[in-house]
Amino acid sequence: MKEEPIYVAFSTQKGGAGKTTLTVLAASYLHYELGYNVAIIDCDFPQHSIHSMRKRDFKMLEDDEFYKGMAYEQFTRLEGRKAYPIVESDTSRAIADAERIVEDYDMDFDIIFFDLPGTMNNRDLILTLAHMDFLIAPIAASRVVMESTLDYMISVRDNIIATGKSNIKAMYLLWNLVDGREKTELYEVYEGVIKELDFPLLKTFLPNAVRFRREQNIEHKPLFLSTLFPPDKSLLKGSNVDTLADELLEVLNLTGHE
């Protein structure tokens, strides 16, 4: 009998908070670098950014001998391990799509990531959120972002978790787009507010850096954001993506599970 995968969403109602980028980085690092079996259900209708990224990645692979060689080398080293599936979906069928790929693929998925829209007045989104095991909300040191995200967390806690009818085991906040290498006093002020609301905060924070937007390109610079490759080791240092992956595995109780 197949093991049940853990459903995880980087979720917030604030656009531009980095949830799509975080989803791809976490999935690619865990799948290609650490050997966990992951999938992504892309419900962010109508743009479907992650599904579109996968199409761009495959197109570049077809057209560019450099990336074709990289892919051959990687998938040979990984002994035939394939690219993780990305399903184009929406909130009305997200859970059904997740259940389908679990049945269709000859593997046990460890984690299925969901890239969700942020509009809380969508009944299908609320039902999908209720099926998540863990929610991680990226935040930035901005009053607009903080207020929007904390309102979102409170709404999920009071209107979904409090009913006792959800699968949500925990929600976490994650500092993203941090200016500079270290957090300033402003972050301490915001963390005081977060503590008062009793929301757990992941220890890892991610910097605001150009590398987080570096996809495949005709100049063949080291890759950071890709659905087919993990972040290049030369760019990983200082990004905290590896640290985030390790902390996620602890939170999800998957350490040593690969």
Automatic annotation (TrEMBL):
Pfam families: MipZ (PF09140). This is ParA family protein. PANTHER family: P-LOOP CONTAINING NUCLEOSIDE TRIPHOSPHATE HYDROLASE, PARA FAMILY PROTEIN CT_582. InterPro entries: DNA_Partitioning_ATPase (IPR050678), MipZ (IPR015223), P-loop_NTPase (IPR027417). It comes from Dysgonomonas termitidis.
